[in-house]
C-alpha cells in the first residue's frame, strides 16, 4: 500500500546563511555530543462523530482525564471543511448526556473561554474507553489533506504510549536507518490540537499539556554538548522541567519569542507559518530578522508546510542559560 505521507526531501538549515539540503544529511549537520530528544507519544484516533439533538456532531478528544477526555466540539461536517468555516455545535450544558463512540458520556464541565471546549466523563472504565475510541474514532486531520488518513500513517517509528491527539510530526522522517546514526533520547508529551476554528480557543493554544521525562533522558541531557528538540512539544516539556523541577508534570506556559531557553539549543521542526502557535515558539530560537530570512527561503524553495512536510533545523541565536532555573535542574552544560 503506498504511503499517504510523502517522505520529506528537504532540510532547511537555519545556522549561518540559511540553505536547504537533503534531509538524509541530518547526521552530517550535527557534532559529537549532540543529543536529539524525541517525543515518543503515539497518536490516538481522537475524532469521533455522534448524533445529538438530531444533528451529526464531531468531538475532537485531545486530553485524557481520570474519568474521560477533554474535547473540542464541532457542528455538522468533517475535516474536508476548513476548520474556521465549520458550523458551531449547539450549546451543551453541564449534566447533559451524550452517546459517544458507543459509550454513555456526560458533560461535566464547559470552559469559560468557549462553550465548545468541554470535559466528558464516561461511565465505562478506561480500558473500554480506549477500545471504543480505537473502534469508532478517526485521525484528527484538516482540510489540506483530502483523503482520510489511516491511523498507522500518523505514527512515528518510535511511538509508544497513546498520548498524542495529533502526531508529533517533526519526527515523522526519522527512520530506523537515520536513528542508528544519531544520539537520541525520548520523553512523552501529550500533544494536543493545533487549531480549533474558534478564535478564543485558538488564541489560547497551545493548551496545557502533560509530559513525562525518564531519568535516563535527563541524565543524557545533562551530559550532552548540545540538546536538539525534535518538535515543539519536546521544547515545552524540557523547558517546563527546567523551571519546575518536575520530571512528570504539566507544561502550562507557552514558549514565546521573549521566553528564555534553559535546556534546548536547537530545534528540528516542521515549516510553520506566521499566525500559528508553533510559529510563535520559533521566535524563542531566532531573532525576527533571522526568522524572516528562514521563512523567505522556505517560500522561495517551495518547501512543504503542514505536518509530514519538509523540516528545518534551527539553532538558538541567544545564549541558553540555566541561571534562573531551579538549582536541581540546572544543566551542567552551562
Helix content estimate: 10-25%
Which class best fits the helix and strand makeup?
Answer: alpha/beta
Largest β-sheet summary: 9 strands, mixed
Q: Record the strand order, biggest sheet.
A: 2-1-17-16-14-3-12-13-15
InterPro entries: QueA, QueA_dom1, QueA_dom2, QueA_sf
GO molecular function: S-adenosylmethionine:tRNA ribosyltransferase-isomerase activity
Keywords: Cytoplasm, Queuosine biosynthesis, S-adenosyl-L-methionine, Transferase
Protein name: S-adenosylmethionine tRNA ribosyltransferase
Protein traits:
nine-stranded mixed β-sheet; single chain; S-adenosyl-L-methionine; 334 residues; 27% strand; 7 helices; QueA-like; globular; QueA; alpha/beta; 19% helix; six-stranded antiparallel β-sheet; QueA_dom2; 2 domains
Your description of this structure?
The protein has 334 residues and is an alpha/beta fold. It has 2 domains: 10-43 and 146-329, QueA-like (3-Layer(aba) Sandwich), CATH 3.40.1780.10; 47-136. It has helices at 126-136, 176-179, 199-204, 215-223, 232-244, 277-282, 288-300; strands at residues 10-13, 19-22, 34-39, 42-43, 47-52, 55-64, 68-74, 97-100, 103-110, 117-122, 162-164, 184-189, 209-212, 226-230, 248-251, 266-270, 311-315.
